[in-house]
């Protein structure tokens, strides 16, 4: 498999491993957006979160929960980001959670700054989406 994260898990590519569990691993991002940028990934290759088993998902986000306290201690604020699929901006097709320390001067902005404008929906469009997404 030609997945950089799978190669890190196999030990073929070196990484600064921070914590490893039975199903997940966290390490320093090799191309950090900020000092202390951490990635948390499942050991098994999955492109999207919904492809993971319940056990893998629980393990992954338990490790996120553990690591976020360490990352948050660096600046007092942490961006938690998952790009779930190529169209969502996922660059490596292997589930990964970014933990990026944030500060007032980092120029990263809010989630709304990632998009050109705020979407305006009609009441019928909102109702249609509500029906499709409600569980």
From TrEMBL:
GO terms for biological process: nucleotide metabolic process. Signal peptide: none annotated. InterPro entries: Histidine_triad_HIT, HIT-like, HIT-like_sf. A motif (Histidine triad motif) lies at residues 94-98. One of its GO terms (molecular function) is catalytic activity. Transmembrane segments: none annotated. It holds the Pfam family HIT. It comes from the Archaea. The active site is at 96 (tele-amp-histidine intermediate). Residues 4-109 form the HIT domain. This is HIT family protein. It comes from Marine Group I thaumarchaeote.
């Amino acid at each position: 498999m030609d997945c950089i994260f799978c190669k890190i898990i196999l030990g073929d590519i070196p990484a600064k491993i921070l914590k490893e569990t039975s199903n997940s691993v966290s390490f320093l991002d090799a191309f950090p957006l900020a000092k202390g940028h951490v990635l948390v990934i499942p050991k098994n290759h999955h492109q999207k979160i919904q492809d993971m088993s319940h056990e893998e998902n629980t393990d992954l986000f338990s490790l996120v929960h553990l690591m976020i306290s360490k990352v948050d201690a660096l600046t007092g604020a942490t961006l938690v980001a998952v790009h779930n699929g190529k169209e969502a901006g996922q660059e490596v097709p292997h589930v990964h959670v970014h933990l990026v320390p944030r500060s007032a001067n980092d120029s990263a902005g809010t989630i709304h700054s990632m998009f050109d404008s705020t979407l305006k929906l009609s009441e019928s469009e909102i109702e249609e989406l509500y029906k499709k997404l409600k569980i």
